[in-house]
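Action item from last week, closing it out:
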Amino acid sequence: MILLFRRLATTWTALVPILAVAVLALAWGRTIPVAVVVIAALFLAGSVLAAVHHAEVIAHRVGEPFGSLLLAVAVTVIEVALIISLTTSGGPAASSLARDTVFAAVMITCNGIVGLSLLVAALRRRVAVFNAEGTGGALATVATLSTLSLVLPTFTTSSPGPAFAPAQLAFAALASIALYGLFVLTQTLRHRDYFLPVEPAGQGADAAGHAAPPTTRAAAVSLALLLGALVAVVGLAKIESPAIETAVRAASLPQSAVGVVIALLVLLPETLAAVRAARRARVQVSLNLAFGSAMASIGLTIPTIAAASLWLKGPLLLGLGPTHIVLLVLTVVVATLTVVPGRATLLQAGVHLTLFAAFLLLAVSP
């Protein structure tokens, strides 16, 4: 029975990304009826679950922190492509889409994913244990990138509005690439042990951690299916975006809510993978996914948007408003206090989830 279940799981996780990409190809660039929108949404959900499965297969093969890094980068690369596509086709109304989506990604990862992961781990084992050295370095990088890219444009005076002058934008892009590259080097080579899971005292590793790793061929197949699933997730999210924008307008919500919904959809694979890792007492993997995704979102989006601004028309608005700056500062302070001890309880989880709830509330009712 167990063998049959595993075969069925393997079958659907292979079929869904292929069918989702087919649906994406048939619907791309066309005006689609409501029924197709619903079908696309179903395949979007299936692709998210399939992406998590294949990411875990690859992570088991290559080990940590390479597995979480691969998923974070893969999702973010396609997310950047989606942002560029929506920005180029959205006209002046999309001038702040990159800012809204990146800020939403930071809030979702640093409060939503972190809070859920700590909640799951603390409920199962009372205390969530992780490596403060590696997580602290990741948080410092996220805080620096967020401030340079999303806060400073609000206060600079060389260009009108919350936007960088060309030289300032070029510096922010180069700094983003440099810091992200330095972090990847630190995470994967020089101090890899800082980002490996920490086992709680008196508890063994999850049984899955001792299972035989998949073969190279199986990992390669999962990599191809993972990329297909992620393409489907982001492509179908774009197809769903007109329906999302229509719903936002019908509900009289601010335009920035579109960026929040897109970020929520795109980050679903990381969210599910992080929660599943937390259930296995691998909180460090969850935090690697959370802060790594936030870092990749800024470190890859800002340079790409900076390059795209050479041909994009209209201003590129990156600076946050006062409300969002307060949320960002509070998130950094709270996350620092969470990370420093290397241990967290339900209280820290509740604080992060409260901040995430506040972000969602202010996104729909600024």
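Closing note: The two ends are 52 Å apart (CA to CA).
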